[in-house]
């Protein structure tokens, strides 16, 4: 354990080796291990405890059960505190290296390890790094990543060294490749840049990872971050070279994206590669999180729509006949927009099943219009009268808004625009039926002149469509999780349509 | 420190209090603290070390400098291991509670703390929880959250207790609210559900958080997660009630979204509310990550486009005259699609500045067509001939694909479809100029019949448009980070257009 901050390590309290052994046993006896990373081991006893514990559990050196092990040989803190005692270095070499997949020393650590094993050398150049990595590999680990963060090189030097050997592979990261002149002009000329390299040596092959040098004080824990990131990539099944590439990219982006913390060398930003979900994933207890959010975000206007006075008077059976007739005439016009909107959705569809679903809804609308016409006939409204009725501004506003949304945006935006109608009428139907089922209800079912309307929207056929719509909306959010900006647009469209639905009933009540 | 796994705590190794004090000093002396959370403190000395260290640094009880402190009174592990010794409970009450913003005991911990302070009681019901929370509040902390995860209640019971007091506010989370009949029908009837409650008491006001009971074995570390999540919300400036709501929601979703780990009670999923970025954020060393990804994802086809034989022969000056003429005639037709595509982009625009930018490009296209016509005249192609030239299938394929993409998708998709042309011609211009600048270059500039074309695309005017386009593309990805699915669509469109650009030059070379 350390007492440390961004200015350095102030103190170290070593764990008793017996306790480290118990911690190791607790984890190994219970949890399947996909990769292992060691960090600061401090003393010989602890190093031995870890090495022995791992060998005992996984079956010793060369056991096929041994998971990838990344050994970060944390030796000395930047502030000069010894984090690995001299005799512990020897134990690391003798006991841990033989089961190590990858050891990740920086220059100072590499020099220390080599000197402890009688291979003293100074590492100042790329050639030194390559030869140092080879010597370290000779000490037992399957691979060595010698980190060159403190050695600044020019691109020319890297080329000179690497082009001279067929065994050296160069991986450029963060540097521009060919056919990227437009980016070179927009950015700084990378050939003038200083670069840093990490040298990976394994199986006689050497890979040199090259990237632009970045000056930053947010480098506290860089080595720990890198070794942990590589271990994660190995756990996911990547090979050592690809895991190293992923790990170094992750780490260097973390340095560049860091926030300042503390007065010394602050930590990296480990969160740079993630964004917050704007819609929670469905869970067993909340299977429709997106629809919930939509309704909650617009609860006032949603209530004013689904519990509109038009609905209440309709439920009571007291709705003036002319209001209902005005409503069904305007609904006729609205249905034309609705059918066209599904045609537009069809034109925006990526698959045959989506095209088919749009076509089916269009056909349903056409069928519904026939039912609608005969329903109107019962209320004394002729087909001709339907066609000659002028469209109310509220109808145009709602219908044209849906079409415009479909023109402006993608499929998902149009789906949002169509949802308020589908779900709202479903809600109204269920609400009226639920209220009607209460003792002494204000809702009159038997003998209500509007009973067919209530039956239709609370009935199984329409409610099945509502459920299908719900699932489609939720699936949209899971398949293509929206950014916060996109989510806000969706909520805005949903809220607008909810409001336009309310306006539609205002229009019917006011005979506007 | 603990040796533990999903089956329980196997052993505890207490830190020396002096070392805890040093760790505290390291952090407090260097880093600005926005909120504090305490967990397992184990013994009286450590508890005192923490309380004394905080008071010394922040100026004692009631100091305005004291940040919010959430005290999770971890007392006993699920497996029965003592994690807070009896005398430590007394110190927690006497020394830590007076500087505590919120203490978060579960039933067992609440009973233990109350019994240690002579207020022994059993907590079995919601009434017990409310009275227990009040009694705990009397011990000094500014607020108490008594967690009821182990007490199952019915919604009726919650209503009975809470409706009887005006001081009790009920926050429902994960339960359906009014006007959500459609979700109640699609889900289970929540009134039949068992619920669990957490009781928050502060300043004489009580809030009861109600949520559906979820059965799960992924509950290891639930209390630690909750107290840490609440501390984070307090650090962000939320008040205690809202922080508690956010923390409980986060924690319960973590339980529901957990992956199985270990043979006992596994950990929560702490990652449920995040998704991976599909495009890294721009950094100082990589200011155009999105364009890089696009080019790298399509490097083969991109190279075959920007280093097309048409370009090479044009650079050498050896391109057959009839190929160039065929090209500029078809380019005339292509520009019509291009202008229309920007009109469509204008129709999809959310702001006046976006509408204006589209209009400006449309005007540029119209101007360019005039220049284009006079350029054609120099090559002996009359305006009439331009208009009567049949459109090649390669031209139609490319032009119509852009329009179709604009119809199918949103603004960003259309921007992607338009990028390959803008950036590719910029790349070609820069490449030719760069090659021409080399000694003994294969590119002939002086006396090349196509020098004007090369000047145009490598010139400042066009390159400024390229840079503006680059920035717009990168800004799109930052403002509305795409999901992996959406990013894949973008890459597909970019790759398709790159391929159609290559096809355009194939067409010119083959006089197709």
Automatic annotation (TrEMBL), chains A, B:
Pfam families: Phos_pyr_kin (PF08543), TENA_THI-4 (PF03070). Residues 1-158, 192-269 form the Pyridoxamine kinase/Phosphomethylpyrimidine kinase domain. Transmembrane segments: none annotated. One of its GO terms (biological process) is thiamine biosynthetic process. GO terms for cellular component: cytosol. This is Phosphomethylpyrimidine kinase. CDD domains: HMPP_kinase (cd01169), TenA_C_ScTHI20-like (cd19367). InterPro entries: Haem_Oase-like_multi-hlx, HMP/HMP-P_kinase_dom, PM/HMP-P_kinase-1, Ribokinase-like, Thiaminase-2/PQQC. Gene3D superfamilies: 3.40.1190.20, Heme oxygenase-like. One of its GO terms (molecular function) is hydroxymethylpyrimidine kinase activity. Residues 298-509 form the Thiaminase-2/PQQC domain. SUPFAM superfamilies: Heme oxygenase-like (SSF48613), Ribokinase-like (SSF53613).
